[in-house]
Amino acid sequence: MAERPGSWLHGVAQARGWLDAGGKLMAGARSDLLQLRYDATAAILTTADYARLNLDRLKQAGVAIGETTAAIAQAAYVGHHLGAGDAVRFMTQGLDPARARLLLDAQVGTAAAGQLVADAGNATAAHRSWFMNYVRRNLKPAAFAI
């Protein structure tokens, strides 16, 4: 995000002289940049920029993300956890079974993933079910309503 023009973190990186003439992070600035992960304002604003980026990519791919706070938050959360490419696939045709199994193995462990796949009948359905339950348990947009 530090190299992405228009992002909050890019502005900070420019102001602190962390970017070279081509807009790339200089090697000597990496440690200073990483220290910002302990700064609450930096974490919040960078996460918001990343969410906006993922939402824009979903919209560009033709994914309907909804208009309610909960729907938008859910789409942003899916993009954050899966990355924009997998989020588009997840929200349209579904993940390829091999990719779904790889993610499920990483998220819950191989043994638990195997059981989920057996219960659901295939890896794509198992990952979708597990992940959407995870999102519903962890995403609480009402907690941030103004």
Query: Which shape, going by the Cα principal axes?
Result: globular
**Oligomeric status:** single chain
Cα distance, first to last residue?
27 Å
Order of helices and strands: HHHHHHH
Number of helices: 7
**Structural class, judged by helices and strands?**
mainly alpha
Question: Strand percentage, roughly?
Answer: under 5%
| Rg estimate, integer Å | 18 Å
Mean of all residue-level pLDDT scores = 93
Tally the beta strands: 0
Helix content: 55-70%
Taking the sheet with the most strands, its summary is: none
How does this structure look, described?
The chain is 66% helix and 0% strand. It has 146 residues and is mainly α. The longest helix has 23 residues, at 69-91. The two termini are 27 Å apart. It has a domain at 1-38. The protein has helices at residues 8-15, 30-35, 40-60, 69-91, 97-108, 110-120, 123-138. Helix 5 (97-108) packs across helix 6 (110-120). The model has no long low-confidence stretch (mean pLDDT 93).
